[in-house]
C-alpha cells in the first residue's frame, strides 16, 4: 500500500505528456528552427503516448499478465472508460470532420479501419489503439506466460518499426509487403504493433517498484534519451522514415523514465489525471479556435505565424478548458441528498480515535491486524480496510477465502489472513489473491501441501479453546506441518476464550493459555523452526493481557468502538467510540384510532387515538425481531418513539403520538444519537439477549454504508 500511495510522479508527468502531445500537433518551434522543431516534436515528443500506455499497463495489467486473474471487472472498467472517451471524442470531432471533408471518398472498409486503427480524427488513434492493445494482451495472457507475451510484443514492435522510422531500409519486396498492411491501416502505430509493447512494459515494471536507485534511473533516462535523439536525427537525415512514432531506443527510454517517475515519492494528484485527459481530448478543437479567433481579430502574425505563441495559447486555452471541465464534473458529482431507505453511517473520526487508543496499549513491537470478517462486523469490510490502509495498517484477518478475495478485488494490498477453514476446491483463490491460509491441523496441512503450489500459511494452535487448531499436546504434528514443502509458514497463532472474564479461575485459565503458547514457541525455536509472526490477542486479550505480547493484535469489536457486552465497559482501560449509526426513513405517518390493532397478528391495540409512523427498515436488514412490541425504540426528531406491534421483514411501526411534526421522509435513528439521547448497540443486544457482535454482524447487505 505504501508503495502504491506515492505515485504522484506519474500524475505530474501526465500533464507534461499532454502538453507534449499538443506540441506534436502544433510544431511550436517551427518558425524559429525547423530542425529544432523536428527534434522536439518528432523525437522528444514521442515519449508522451508510450507514457500513457505504460501507466495503463502498470495499474491494470499485472493481475492478468503476471497473476492470471479471472476477475474481468477491472479490465471491463478500463475498456468501458476508454470506449466512452472514444465515443465522446468521435462525437465532438464529427462536425469538424464534416467541415474539413475528412470523410470524403472513404469507402466502408476505410471507415472501419479508421474507427479501429487510425482514429476518426488525427489525434484519436491512441484510444482505439489502447482498447485493441489491451484486448490483445488479455487474450495472449490466457494462453501464454507473461514472458512469452512480452517477447511477442517486442516482436510486433520490431515489425512496426520497419513500417515506421525504418521504412526506408526495406527492400522493394519488404516495402510491398508493408504496402499491403497499409491497405488495412495507415500506420503501424496502432493496437497491434505499437501499443502492446508499452502496455506490457508497464505491467512488467510493476514487479520492480523499487524506491531506491532514483538517481540511476534519471541518469538512465538522460543517456537513453540522448541515444534516441541521435538515432532520430540520423534517421531523419537519411530520410528513411515513413512516419516517426517508433524508435529503437524509445522503449528503453520509457523504461528508465517510468522507473524514475515511480521511484519519486510524492503524493498522488488525481485532478491532474483528469485535466490531462481533457487537454488531450480537446486541444485540436483549441487549435481551430485559436486559429479562427486570430483570423477574426486580424492577429494572425502573432498567434498563427509565431509558432511558439500559437503553441502557448493552445496550451493555455486547453488547460483552462480542462480545469473548468474538471471543476464542473466535481460540482456535478457532489453528493446529493441521501435517497436510501435505510443506511449505515460510519464515523471516520471515531475509527481513527479507536485505532489511536488501541495503539497506545499495544505491546512493544506489536501491530494491529484488524478483523474485518463478516463484512467488518457489519460496517463494510472494504470501507474499513481501505480506511485502515490509509492509516498505514496493512495486515487484516478475515474468516473466509471469499472475504479475502473481496478485499483484494477492491484494491486492498498487504497481508490478509484467512482465520477459518477453506475447502480444497477453493485453494486456487488463496494463491491467486495472495491470501494466507490458516492450517487448522496436521491433516489439513497435508491437503494444502498436496495442491502443489507454494502457499503462505499460519498454523493455528489449540491452547485450550478447543475450537480450530492443532492441539498443543500434539507437538510432533505441529512440527510436521513445518516440514511440508509447499507450505510457507509465516506465523503461528492461538485464540483466547475467556479473556473477557475477570473471574479468578478464568484469569488463571487465560494465563495458562498464554504460557502454553510461549512454551510451544520455545520448543519450535529449539528445533530450529522459524515461527514467523506470533499472535494470540483479540480485543479482550489486548485490553486485559497486553503483557502476552505478540506481533499482531487481531482486534475486531474494539476497533469498531464497542465491547461484546455493556458490563465490560466498567473495566475497559481505554475509551472507545462507536463507529456505526443506523438510520432509516419515515415512509408514512397515519392515525391509529382507539381500539384498532396494527401489524401482523394485530398484537398491538391502541388504547386511545395514536399517531404512528411506518419506517423503512425491518428484520430483513438485520434488526432483531425481539425489539417488537415496545421492547425497542427509535429516535425521531430527537425523541424516543417505541416500536409497536411485530417487526416486519422490511418495515416497522413506531408510536409518534408525543412527537409533533413528524412527516414522511424524516430520518429515524435506530442506532446512534441526537443531542443527548442515544440508542446503542448494547440496547439492541440486550433486548435480544445477545452480544453486540451478533447484532452488528447481522446488519444486512441491503443497507447502504456511507461515511458521515
Ligand atoms: C473474530 C476473531 C478475532 C477478533 O475478535 P474480537 O473479539 O472481535 O476482537 C480474533 N481472532 C480470531 C481467531 C477470531 O475468530
Question: What does the model show?
Answer:
By secondary structure, the chain is an alpha/beta fold. Helix content is 49%, strand content 13%. The chain has 27 helices and 20 strands. Strand 16 and strand 17 form a beta hairpin. The longest helix has 27 residues, at 73-99. The mean pLDDT is 92. The structure holds pyridoxal-5'-phosphate. Residues 371, 373, 419, 495, 538-540, 554-558 line the site of pyridoxal-5'-phosphate. Pyridoxal-5'-phosphate binds at residues 371, 373, 419, 495, 538-540, 554-558.
Shape: globular
What's the story with the biggest beta sheet? 9 strands, parallel
Q: Low-confidence spans: pLDDT under 50, at least 5 residues?
A: none
Number of helices: 27
* Molecules bound to protein: pyridoxal-5'-phosphate
Helix content: 40-55%
Quaternary class = single chain
Strand content: 5-15%
Q: What is the rounded Rg?
A: 32 Å
Structural class given helices, strands, pairing?
alpha/beta
The overall pLDDT, averaged over residues, is 92
Alpha carbon gap, first and last residue: 24 Å
Count the beta strands: 20
Key traits:
13% strand; 708 residues; alpha/beta; single chain; six-stranded antiparallel beta barrel; globular; 20 strands; binds pyridoxal-5'-phosphate
